[in-house]
Amino acid sequence: MLLPFLSLLYYLVIVLLTLVLYFVVKKKIQVVKKILFTSMILTGSGITILIFTEHRLPLYGAFEATFYLIFILTLLEIQFWKNKEISIQLKSCGGTAVISLGLLLYHIMQPKEFNPDFFMYGNPWVNLFFNLRLTATALFTRTALLYQMGIWGQNINNSTKFNNEKIDLTTAQKDSLKICSKATSRNIKIPATSPENNNQKICKSQNLKQNIFFSSARTLLLVGLVVFLCSEWAGSWWCLNWLGDSWQWSKGFFKAAIVFMLVMLTCHLPPSFARNSRIKAMTGSLPALFLMWTIFYH
Amino acid sequence: MIQRIASIHLTFYSIISLGVLLIMGVVLCYFPDHQSAIDGLNSSLIHHWLGETISSNPIVSIWVIIVCMVSAILFINALLCSATTLLSAALKRPSLKRWSFMLMHVLFLLVLACHGLSLISGHKTENIQLYPGESHELSDGFSLVIQGITFVDDTRLISMKTKKNRHLMTRKTFHPDKNYASVVLMQNQKPVTSQKVMMLNPLVHGSMRITLNRFLFENPVRGDERDGKNSGKKNEAGDGIKKEKKMGAAFTISKNRFTTVFFVAYGLLISTIICFVLTKHSPR
């Protein structure tokens, strides 16, 4: 009886997220916000149904994990809107919609049902272990998204700058540009209206945007680490009561240690690497990618 | 020299190396031979395990040795970094942010040390199969006596293969709080404590834990063999021929003095990271 309703919910969220992408392109931020909020309510209602019918928190299992991840991602997105420019909000909403749609479409062929029951799901530590790990995955995914949006802005800036320069050079400003470049090489003050000065302003504003994304990503990475460690703490306690030891030499434990190592890698980049925003963004995205693999390959 | 060992470059490359080694570990687990060799580490101390495995499975043995060596390098690096850079920074300009940053590294060291010490101390014996009336001798004069097994659910769940019963053992069909083994822990023939040991609810006495892993039926062949050869286990009930299937339980008996320290340090580590996140107002 629940299956058709869950399928309906699933396809409704797909439609809504597609609409989010459409309105992001149209730059209608208020509509985007409303649709994204509705998606959060729908995925949240899916989670509520799960809690009431299955008497447990969302755990591993393609359908419920996807719904829970989208719920947390949209929740974090709404939290991110505060005091941000419209262009940043649009970019962030677009990113969240793309990831969420990707997750939903990846599972389109799988049954839209909750994970089969298991007697251990009655144990609070089991619930905490799986659910907190899912929450950590959502937080790391958001971190990865923020890092990627940070460098994506830089790429757009570079390409826009390149196109502007090309247009400028083909017009009458070509000569004045030459004069300006000579002036800068001789340390002569360039007039405020020169193209270089405008580019510097664009560059500064892009760096500021990147700082906003990177700063939020760094904080979220640490929050994700806290949640992930809480999950591991609960998992170790479960393992101690089930198998008699808090650590096992097995692939499940190795995978958990790899996630910790990947977060540590991002936090311990040598200064030469840390200055490179691409390396920072790449390492910051690895925990999310790896955790996604462990959850959906599971 | 100390500056070099405490440098962030060494931290970075140690983390990368450990990450690569762990990925190798995951890959090794996909090979049944290597998987069983790695499993052996769960029930024996590392030096005993190495003595047995180095000749039978050198790949896994070398992998474990390198993992331990890289972990030791990371430990020394974090220790020196905490003692030189982080502590001096916290002392020079004390703030909650700096102290929490320093403490989180110290607590990480403590967690890592607990992991390392549990590899070389204590003991763990897995899959001890016991049936009502039987006892198992432990170290320090302790012995475990099984008084009885109570299983109220469908016994077919026990005879099925693990993969099949995983889907059938739901919360409606299997009740971990109603199925238990009544055990008595004895020391020098005197009872120390008794408890109903359930799945996920072990008997804890000091640093010793008696954990019930699963319920099982006695294999008739095994029963015959035991009656014939009279293996190390005593049969207090003095039963005769056991042709019928008898229900028992598989236990893990472990002793680790660092378990409590590990969980407390782990909890404190999480608290210090929370403290650091809360005090981290401005972007670096």
Show the helix and strand layout.
The complex is a heterodimer of chains A (298) and B (284).
Chain A: H1 2-25, H2 29-54, H3 62-80, H4 86-106, H5 124-170, H6 173-185, H7 195-243, H8 251-267, H9 271-274, H10 277-297
Helix pairs in contact in A: 1-2, 1-4, 2-3, 2-4, 3-4, 3-5, 4-5, 5-7, 5-10, 8-10
Chain B: H1 2-5, H2 8-28, H3 32-40, H4 46-56, H5 58-92, H6 96-120, E1 123-130, E2 134-137, E3 142-150, H7 156-159, H8 162-168, E4 180-187, E5 190-198, E6 203-205, E7 208-217, H9 220-229, E8 234-235, E9 247-255, H10 259-279
Antiparallel strand pairs in B: 1-9, 2-3, 2-8, 3-4, 4-5, 6-7, 7-9
Describe the structure.
The complex is a heterodimer of chains A (298) and B (284). Chain A is mainly α. Chain A has one domain (2-155, 218-297). Chain A contains ten helices and no strands. Chain A has helices spanning 2-25, 29-54, 62-80, 86-106, 124-170, 173-185, 195-243, 251-267, 271-274, 277-297. In chain A, α1 packs antiparallel against α2 and α8 runs antiparallel to α10. The longest helix of chain A has 49 residues, at 195-243. Chain B has 284 residues and is of the alpha+beta class. Chain B folds into two domains: 1-92; 123-255, no CATH class. Chain B is built from ten helices and nine strands. In chain B, the strands form two sheets. Chain B has a five-stranded antiparallel β-sheet with strand order 5-4-3-2-8, with no helix packed on it. In chain B, strands 1-9-7-6 form a four-stranded antiparallel β-sheet, with no helix packed on it. Chain B is elongated, with a radius of gyration of 24 Å. Chain B starts with a helix and ends in a 5-residue tail after the last helix. Residues 228-242 of chain B have low confidence and may be disordered. The chains are: A mainly alpha (298), B alpha+beta (284).
